[in-house]
Design brief:
30% of the residues are buried. The protein is built from six helices and nine strands, in the order H-E-H-E-H-E-E-E-H-E-H-E-E-E-H. Helix 5 (130-144) links the parallel strand 6 (117-124) and strand 7 (148-153). Strands 3-6-7-8-9 form a five-stranded mixed sheet, sandwiched between helices. Helix content is 35%, strand content 22%. It has one domain (11-75, 96-189): CoaB-like (Rossmann fold), CATH 3.40.50.
Length: 190
């Protein structure tokens, strides 16, 4: 094994970035795959892991006061602390890794700039019902001080998506419709 990963496609972030071009200066902090999707119309910066994204996001937020952050990145929730400095011999037979929680980037954004307009994403477990999804998004809205949370259910991304803000929630049968509504709300604040 060379690496443990759960890479995202970057489709959502590329879609949102393209939809906002011309409305504002857009910077996409993305995975290599996400950056392949944006072409030359969007300023793209590659991040490597959760801590790299944290550093880049903090720099962007602190240098763009009262900006808009759409945090759609599927970042790693855990990392190996103190990974092996060199190749581990396959003669060991067994080798254990201990994973530690990474910082929750979404929880830090409004600490860096309380005036930022923050949109976060929440992927709920596969058996999450519609009302439970709304409640999960409301918890994230409060915890992160987001203005809006885009929620969906893992394994059912093409189906119901929900937008939750301080005024309430709105469910969409198609993810594309929820993304269009999200972009329209962001455009209204730019």
């Amino acid at each position: 094994m060379r690496h443990i990963s759960a890479n995202s496609t970057g489709r959502t972030s590329a879609h949102i970035a393209h939809a906002l071009v011309g409305q504002s200066n857009v910077t996409l902090l993305g995975s290599p795959e996400a950056l392949l999707r944006i072409g030359g119309s969007v300023n793209g910066q590659e991040f490597g892991d959760t801590r790299d994204l944290l550093r880049r996001m903090q720099h962007w937020v602190q240098n763009n006061p009262a900006g808009v952050v759409v945090h759609a990145a599927a970042v790693g929730d855990y990392e190996v602390r103190d990974p092996a400095a060199s190749k581990v011999s396959s003669q060991l037979g067994e080798w254990s890794l201990t994973l530690h929680a990474t910082p929750k980037i979404a929880d830090l954004v409004t600490q860096w700039d309380p005036q930022v307009y923050l949109v976060t994403f929440k992927a709920a477990g596969p058996d999450t019902g519609a009302e439970e999804l709304v409640q999960t998004c409301r918890k994230q809205l409060r915890r992160t001080c987001s203005q809006m949370v885009f929620g969906n259910v893992i394994g059912d991304l093409g189906a119901t998506s929900t937008l939750v803000d301080a005024l309430g929630s709105e469910a969409f049968e198609r993810r594309e419709d929820a993304l269009s509504a999200l972009v329209a709300r962001i455009r209204a604040v730019l």
